[in-house]
Amino acid sequence: MAKAELFQKDIPKDERVFYYESEEDDPIQTDEQEKKVEVGLPEGYKFIPKNIFVRMYSSILYRMFKIFGQYYERGYWQAKFYGREKLKKAKGKGYVIYANHTNPFHDVFGPAIAADRRIFTIISPVNLLVPGIGKFLPLIGGLPLGKTKEEKQAFNEAVDKRLAQKNCLVIYPEAHVWPYATKVRKFPAGDKSFKYATRNNLPIFTMTTTYHKRKDRKRGDLPRMDIYIDGPFYLDAKLSEEENRVKLAKEAYESMVKWSKKNSYEYFEYIKKMKSK
Question: Rounded to an integer, what is the distance from CA 38 to the centroid of its chain?
Fold first, then answer.
């Protein structure tokens, strides 16, 4: 089955089961992952383009992206957003949104519709190879992780600059997409992805996508979505940067777990494999 079909069309019920050994398993493998290909960034990659025409094109493309996203989210997924007013508490500063990772198409558009400003999303370099949309991801806010020391430094500088510009940084701490998952998984990197908020002294929010049955059957059994924004969660001035990372990671996880209990429909079933004796 083509990977896109998992998210764009209803599939038979007996094919909606994933067996896993660990929460760090990746049910959706790209061709590069299946071939164990190490994907890096193009030579001379610029995280923040300096060319004024590229920047203008990026701004126009982002506006078109948001317009299409509104129709896609509210039309295709019948998505409803709750708690967006909470983001106003971060007025005058940047912030970071941590979200559960359950649908790669919605995960591109959802935060842009939820946020009250431009978003920039941390992505894997492999996403740049996705046919059609891959090459446009950086123009609409994708920030691919670097591999080399120089790329990592440039990546971190770009993240800090975007946050200093009072934008929104989006991170999926579960790392791997689990289609329509109703359970929030532990964060494989622990509290490491919370360093962007702590070193910039910024609040964080969570965005939890939940799934529910549709009232109509136009798309078969495909679920609809409710999306919940929670926060802000702030740093504690009495704690060290490392302690604040742990604090924020705990609060983000507990928040997403709390809102995930709103799920009322399990479209995909996840079954943990029994260890052989």
Answer: 22
pTM higher than 0.85 for the full model? yes
Nearest to 251 by CA among 101, 108, 98, 65: 98
How far apart are alpha carbons 70 and 197 in whole angstroms? 28
Instruction: Give the chain's domain count.
Output: 1
Of residues 218 and 64, which shows the higher confidence score? 64
Answer yes or no: is 27 within a domain: no
Residue listed under structure tokens 């002294």 = 201
Cβ–Cβ < 8 Å for 47, 158? yes
Quick one: which of 190, 200, 191 has its CA closest to 169? Answer: 200
Only one residue has tokens 């506006």, namely: 63
Token representation of residue 216 = 């109509």
Q: In 3-state terms, what secondary structure has residue 196? A: helix
For residue 142, the enclosing domain spans: 34-272
